[in-house]
Design brief:
heterodimer, A: 498 residues, mainly alpha, two-stranded antiparallel sheet, 19 helices, 3% strand, globular, B: 455 residues
Chain lengths: 498, 455
């Protein structure tokens, strides 16, 4: 087997094998498990980096074999795949480090990290899937492997949230499968292709294709947290912080958004989708979700719930971007896939730090936390400002590109949505920042713990600082060749100029 | 590109204040934080003085692809910004107590970096970036005292500033589409040729920067926020940061393009409304800093009149724009001195007291435009130019309006002087405070003799 076929499989196997090993390890062997976890994460990062370099140079990584007649299992690394794979690999390493510190003395760590690694493997599969069938396989695997993480604490509330999560996501999965099977019957096994498949298709099929489009988007919209399919997301906040970080910043919501990108560009083709008028209703729905999430976030007192509604809003930026017909909109949406991930994971890391170190879960308990936990609070502040779109942070680059894309597509109303959303973001993030830095400590911290010199456990201390540095650099150095923006431009060029 | 100002100096101008907040990371560096306050704008000051000829610096790897530049207009604003922040910084070193010193210095550094950077910005993204950094960080200066009044003022400041920012972002996005270029220099021509979109863009810029410049109806935050900040912060808010709005207008409005006469007339009327309308609320105040804030609205009104005139008479724009820069320079320094004076005390010795009042009077007479002051130069040229230009809107009423504006200035300055006379108490303050104020007065006074070189 050649190296180009081997690397995608290795990228998958690195976490899959880690999962198997971790499940096999006894609960007590903490150090060995941590070692396996970190080794696997670093190894995966190296593989993904090598593949990204290859894709940049034009190497075609792909492997495919037949499962059933007419149904292929297919892995393929194109530029879009590496966008998602790269995000996952980088943030996964950091989340693993964070989770080791976060779950320091809690029970069932073996189970946790086992499913955690399965989760990575599924995400990697979603990124590298070469056709809808393979995508679906890993998409459902992600659902099943995240469920144990959501209910990890085992409380009544956690079980309830888990039930809800599984109903929503499996329901979405069924609808998605329906769409895939119908499409398969109509057109056969369609590999993802940068220009789509339906240019110049027989007009008599347009009706059916539109229905299939609706089914696929509805199925994927559940995980992407699109209104009105977002109900599971705020509830899933009962999960431990690293899981929330992972659900919201990388794996689950992004899997949905990523799927929508694949369907629009690589199955239907942006040109066809645009001409059939499929994009505009989706754009409106995304716009509504953006505002809806922000408005709901305003009234949340629980910090993680506020962040959850913020996620609902922010993920729809991606959808809005890809529905703006034109390369700039595409770039804006795709780059937000990364930027939102970096910013949101920073916020969740920080929320976890406040909870673990001070026992603080509510926004109104954060008064004066800036002086007690300056590093965490600086990271939180930077990420919050980034979300609002303050330049030169990551969120600004997104907002500018999306705005320019909307104008280029003659969709001026979308700019208005972006501006309104920025104001709403400011309205629910700035009061938190104000509490952190400008209000005196009102009451003793609910449950304070201390760890030596640093403000919190070193495993929790560094990850948000690293992601904060990233969210500054990806904005500040956006035009350089190594930035997410440049990568998104590369993808867009390949999509619009076949 | 001219090789005279080295890239290192340009970078230091912005990076020094931008990285300065890092000193707040460790408590033991408090002394350095305080000592550096007056030194932060010095690279920018050197840059302003050394840049005899215009230069452009391309930074294609930064943000969205940046261009930094310095021409005559920007040089004048850079001079003002660096001088005022430097003297106010010296004053602040002798003003701030130990409490929350670190927090104040962090916001001071970021606000300064924004204020200096926006002057150097040659493209929309850089300008918007530095402008936003200044706006957000400025909030920390406004609410620093932590009183209920300060928090309320801070909230009004932030809400209005955010709405202004959104107007600017929309304006810049639309201008980017119209010009297909990020350069600020391309904006004016692009929005003139782009039809109705151009009108929307101009309106967005007018309002967005108008919030910062205290244009009537967008001014509400200003008399609340400028007085509640610590005195050195009030000085830079009212002297330098407010001018960022003015500079924004000069860089984005279609000055020098024909077809904008009605806009010019509108802005002139609005300017006079601000200039004259600020008198009554200002004269009723009991806090000298609030009187000064209203006076700033009044003076910015006059600058808006000049911008309006430049829009209405595009042929004369090359004459009017340097005049506006001169006016801004004069007003910024004089207003800074007046704000700083509020935090002084009466010395014990009679001679020193006399000297104090003499020095206090200098920026006052300058603002009034008495001979041998920068004010005489700025206001004299303004009057001569406006009255000499043929076909300006409000033509026949102009002499009367300008006289009324002079009277308005007099009323507000007199009210301020009276309140200060009543308020200053005997006592002692740190030497740095005296030095900062005296240096500011010196700059303001020397300006008149230096100016022919600038113009």
């Amino acid at each position: 087997m050649s190296l180009t076929a081997l690397l995608p499989i290795l990228a998958l196997l690195s976490s899959l094998l880690a999962a198997v090993v971790i499940f096999a390890l006894p609960e007590s062997s903490h150090r060995l498990r941590t070692l396996v976890n970190l080794l696997a994460a670093v190894l995966k990062l190296a593989i993904v980096a090598a593949m990204t370099w290859g894709v940049f140079r034009g190497v075609d990584f792909s492997v495919s074999f037949t499962m059933l007649p007419g149904v292929n299992f297919m892995l393929r690394a194109d530029a879009l795949a590496m966008l998602f794979a790269g995000l996952s690999a980088v943030l996964w390493l950091l989340t693993t480090i964070y989770a080791v510190g976060y779950l320091e003395d809690s029970p069932n760590r073996s189970r946790f990290f086992g499913f955690f690694s399965l989760c990575v493997a599924s995400t990697m599969g979603i990124a590298l899937a070469g056709n809808l069938f393979t995508f679906f396989l890993f998409y459902e695997m992600l659902t099943l492997s995240t469920y144990p993480l959501v209910v990890h604490r085992g409380t009544e509330k956690a079980l309830q949230a888990g039930r809800n999560y599984i109903i929503y996501t499996l329901g979405g999965g069924v609808v998605l499968l329906l769409g895939i099977v119908w499409l398969h019957g109509l057109a056969g096994d369609l590999a993802f292709r940068e220009t789509g498949h339906f240019q110049g298709v027989d007009p008599s099929l347009h009706g059916q294709l539109t229905l299939i489009f609706v089914l696929l988007i509805a199925g994927l919209g559940v995980k992407a947290g699109m209104f009105p399919l977002h109900g599971w997301l705020p509830q899933a906040m009962v999960a431990p912080a690293p899981v929330s970080a992972l659900l919201h910043a990388v794996a689950v919501v992004k899997a949905g958004a990523f799927g929508i990108v694949r369907v629009i560009y690589d199955i239907f083709g942006i040109d066809f989708a645009y001409r059939q008028g499929l994009l505009e209703p989706l754009a409106w729905l995304a716009a509504f979700t953006i505002l809806y999430g922000s408005v709901r976030a305003l009234s949340q007192i629980d910090l993680k719930r506020r962040l959850a509604f913020s996620t609902i809003s922010q993920v729809s930026y991606i959808i809005l971007g890809v529905t703006l017909f034109g390369p700039l909109g595409t770039v804006g949406g795709l780059v937000h896939l990364l930027h939102q991930g970096i910013m949101k994971i920073t916020l969740f890391f920080c929320a976890g730090n406040y909870a673990e170190t001070l026992g603080v879960h509510r926004v109104d308990e954060l008064d004066g936390a800036g002086a007690r936990m300056p590093a965490t609070s600086i990271a939180f502040t930077a990420a919050a400002l980034g979300m609002i779109g303050v330049p030169p942070l990551a969120g600004f680059v997104t907002k500018w590109t999306l705005g320019a894309g909307a104008l280029a597509a003659q969709m001026e109303w979308a700019v208005l949505i972006l501006l309104l959303s920025s104001l709403l973001n400011a309205a629910y993030f700035l009061p938190i920042v104000y509490r952190l830095w400008f209000l005196p400590v009102a009451a003793p911290w609910p449950e304070e713990r201390r760890w030596g010199r640093l403000e919190t456990n070193a495993w929790l201390f560094w990850p948000p600082l690293v992601t904060m540095l990233m969210l500054v650099l990806v904005g500040l150095l956006a035009p350089t060749v190594v930035s997410p923006l440049s990568w998104a431009q590369l993808i867009a060029v390949r999509m619009y100029l076949p | 590109m001219n090789s005279l100002p080295s890239t290192a100096l340009i970078a230091a101008s912005v990076l020094l204040p931008l990285l300065y907040p890092l000193l707040a990371l460790r408590g033991v560096w408090r002394g350095a934080l305080r000592a550096l306050l007056p030194l932060l704008p010095l690279p920018a000051l050197v840059l302003a003085l050394l840049s005899a000829s215009p230069w452009t610096l391309e930074l294609p790897w930064l943000v969205l692809g940046s261009t930094w530049m310095l021409d005559e207009l920007r040089r004048s604003f850079l001079l003002l910004t660096a001088l005022l922040w430097s003297t106010a910084g010296l004053y602040a070193a002798g003003y701030l107590g130990a409490e929350q010193l670190r927090r104040f210095c962090v916001f001071w550094g970021f606000t300064l970096a924004g204020n200096l950077g926006l002057v150097l910005a040659g493209d929309m993204a850089s300008f918007y970036m530095f402008f936003t950094v200044m706006t957000f960080a400025g909030y920390g200066l406004v609410v620093h005292e932590g009183s209920d009044r300060a928090c309320f003022a801070g909230r009004v400041y932030l809400v209005m500033a955010l709405i202004g920012e959104m107007a600017l972002l929309a304006g810049f996005l639309l201008a980017f589409r119209a010009a297909d270029s990020l350069l600020l220099a391309d904006v004016a021509a692009a929005i003139t040729t782009t039809g109705t979109d151009g009108w929307l863009i101009a309106a967005l810029f007018l309002a967005g920067f108008g919030v910062k410049a205290g244009l009537p109806l967008l001014h509400f935050w200003l008399p609340l926020a400028h007085p509640v900040a610590p005195t050195p912060a009030s000085a830079v808010l009212s002297g330098a940061m407010i001018k960022a709005g003015l500079l924004g207008w000069l860089l984005t409005l279609p000055i020098g393009e024909s077809g904008w006469a009605p806009w010019g007339q509108f802005l002139m009327v609005l300017g006079f409304v601000g200039s004259l309308g600020a008198v009554l609320p200002g004269a009723l105040q009991r806090d000298p800093k609030t009187v000064l804030a209203w006076s700033s609205i009044s003076q910015m009104g006059l600058m808006a009149v000049l911008v309006g005139a430049a829009l209405a008479a595009p042929g004369h724009a090359p004459l009017l724009v340097p005049l506006i820069a001169l006016f801004a320079l004069h007003h910024g320094l004089a207003k800074g001195c007046l704000f700083l004076a509020v935090g002084l005390v009466l010395p014990a010795s009679r001679v020193l007291r006399l000297l104090l009042w003499l020095l206090l009077a200098l920026p006052v007479v300058s603002l009034l435009g008495l001979p041998f002051t920068s004010g005489a130069l700025a206001k004299g040229v303004m009057k001569d130019t406006l009255l000499a230009l043929p076909g300006l809107p409000l033509g026949s009423q102009l002499p009367l309006l300008l006289q009324a504006a002079t009277l308005a200035t007099l009323v507000l300055v007199a009210r301020y002087a009276w309140l200060l006379w009543r308020q200053l108490q005997p006592g002692t303050v740190a030497t740095a405070r005296w030095a900062g104020w005296a240096l500011a007065v010196l700059c303001s006074a020397v300006l008149f003799w230096y100016l022919p070189g600038v113009g």
